[in-house]
Amino acid sequence: MADTKKTKTIQTRTVPTFVALKAATRDILTAPADERAGLLLGSADIAAIVPRIPPEELLFTLRGAKGGEISEIMSYARPSQMRFVLDMELWSKDEIVPERSEFWMKLFDNFDLSTLERYVKTLDHADLAVLTGKQIVATLADEDGHPAHDDIDGYTSFTLD
Is the pTM of this model over 0.85? Predict the structure, then answer.
């Protein structure tokens, strides 16, 4: 009777070394802004590279990216990176710029829940109110129980009843 041993094969993914990550990050950061998003999204190590990018460089990278690319890249960002990017993008002096706020609120809709939750947890209530205040409309429900002004483009409506 022949020996019929079963052998197991284990698939492993090589964890990138510090040196490899440093080199990959350098290659991305030395590329033009409009090429960085493509390089990041094409990297198998995006989850390890994005948190290593200085916040200022991440902002520069995102400014050269498209909407869907921004959402994907931001899903790997640390909360401190996210906060820096949004502080730089949303504010002009001591006021939020409504057009920029609307752009980012629409992008938030593309974020997965864990990314959005990770960022919102870093905000205090006042920051959250300022950030979302111009895009949220509170209304009374219509006869069907829906927000009466649910058709305003760029705004989120909810009912108080």
Answer: no
Are 59 and 84 contacting, i.e. CB atoms less than 8 angstroms apart? Answer: yes
With 0-12 / 13-18 / 19 or more C-beta atoms within 10 angstroms meaning exposed / middle / buried, residue 47 is exposed
SS3 156: strand
Within a 10 A sphere around the Cβ of 6, how many other Cβ atoms?
4
Rounded distance, CA 75 to CA 86, Å? Answer: 14
* Of 69, 53, 58, 57, residue with least CA distance to 21: 53
* 3-state SS string for 85-132: HHHHHHEECCEECHHHHHHHHHHHCCCCHHHHHHHHCCCCHHHHHHHH
Task: State the Cα–Cα distance between residues 14 and 26, nearest whole angstrom.
Answer: 20
Average pLDDT of the chain, as a whole number = 80
